[in-house]
Amino acid sequence: MIIAEHLRKTFKSKTGDVVAVDDVGFRARDGEITGLLGPNGAGKTTTLRMLYTLMTPESGRVLIDDRDVADDPVAARRALGVLPDARGVYKRLTARENIRYFGELHGLSRDVIDQRTRVLAEALQMEDFLDRQTEGFSQGQRTKTAIARALVHDPRNVILDEPTNGLDVMTTRGLRGFLQHLRGEGRCVIFSSHIMQEVAALCDRIVVIAHGRVTAEGTPDELRAQTGETNLEDAFVKLIGSEEGLQA
Amino acid sequence: MKALLTVWMKELREFARDRRTLLLSLVMGPLLTPALLIGMFTLIEKKAQSQSEKPLEIAMVGAENAPNLVAWLAGQGITRKTLKGDPDAAVRAQDEDAYLKVSKDFAKDWREGTPALVEIVHDSTRQDARIPVQRLEGALQRYGQQVGALRLLARGINPGIASPLAVSHTDLSTPEARKGMIMSFLPYLFILSAFLGGAYLIIDTTAGERERQSLEPLLATPARRSSIVSGKIAAASTVGMLSLLFTLLALKLGAQFAPGIGRNLDVTFLAIMKMLLVLAPMVFIGTTLLTYIAAGAKSVKEAQSYMTVLMLLPMLPTIILMVSPVKEALWQFTVPFLAQNQLLLKVVRSEVISPLEWLVYCAAGFGLAGLLWYAATRRYHQERLAISA
Predict the structure, then answer these.
(1) B61, β-bridge pairs
(2) Which CATH topology does A1-79+156-248 take?
């Protein structure tokens, strides 16, 4: 379970301070998929980076499995599987070696890594390119490799930053199935997206972020009720305050 | 510690798969440096030999005024050649090294016993003209002294009276040290290859990793950042040390084929090992400094633009020593580049390096590398490092 409380982050720029995230808080439960929905530049990636301890919030705190990440960031990173916005793979290593590298950094034994690689490769349908060097991989193959290496240590909590970015329809469908599979295993899954169809199709709970703030939180039904709109798309537009950046 | 080893091995494996870069850094460099040395040696030796032993042919303007002098010079291996056109222009155009100008009044002055004028016309900025001019000058001086002595004898005077001083040189330099003098550029080559031997790998794995967007996922793993940086530094140092070892071994091998090197340099196995020890701190200083710089750079291109400046750094002590030579002192072994420069020269001249000098040197060298390592790991803790895009 991941809990974010009153997160705030400011960036310094030449024109003055920019508040990227302002008092963001939500709760992502185990066995549920929580979607972070918002237009580009709304503060989704910055929020996620604070969750996986890459950035320290100015105020507020993050709890992972009821432990404050600030107390022990290493333990927090151990409990998390992260697919960041940046998902470069090592071009001169094979997909399997990419996964093994991260497994070793997590301190896993060779046997465990091999066994996890088998499971993940099957779930993500990557057997036919597992032993090829990743140079020349398609976007979908790269993303799958990045997801597999993020989950090699079998984490309870999974954070994915726009996982379907740049993927074709079939790969996206496959990935959706994989996320549902993770939920079925009782994991806590958070993923961010700016595509509302995707969030609507997949998420148990939705957190809508715009301009660095949470504008709404709840199940799709609750959001519809809250805005008085029967159509989810209209509800989103109302919550975000504009249609900007919501196109797929 | 385990993470360090993981990163170390992974970076080396990735490096080994890049065949072209591997060849460039582990084969090309080690071949080029000794090849350059052998080539320069052969060239210098040949030149010195041919210039001081071959008959020297120079133009002599007004030779008809001093037929005896010309005949005497010919006996010394300096013969006359005819030159068309303006001899001054020929020297300026560097077609001629020098020429001799005998004054019109030479014969008259000679007979009257007043100093007769002969001029050596040359361009003092030309290295090539140095030896011919010296030979000519020496020959003329000998001729002058000979004739002077004869004149005194003819007047019944002991020629010794006219030379109250007998000046002579006694060269106390060891033969090995004289050899080392020609080699003042050798330390630069070795220091440079030690300093920047791991440069490619370190830039590729720090700035390059950031540019290729694989740094953020790496930093999201539980591995400590200091372990990650240290692994990268260890990998680059491995490559740097290997490339250095190959260079030194190639030099040793080259000495078998070009006797010039062996005669001028100490290339015994002991000396090679000493050179490796002298250069080891340089490898660490180079990789840690580059890690510190490249970690702050946003792209490989930015990191590479620092290389030009870094290539000049090892040259500084050589330049400073050239402008104002300093006496050897213990403090010099604490100054990076200067220390390596002095120690390498000592090794190739087969001079003894005292244990105290080794101690001071290693403490200072590895100490500085340690400081730079600390600075580099601190840089990897910065928040903005992970945010590349």
Answers:
(1) B101
(2) Rossmann fold (3.40.50)
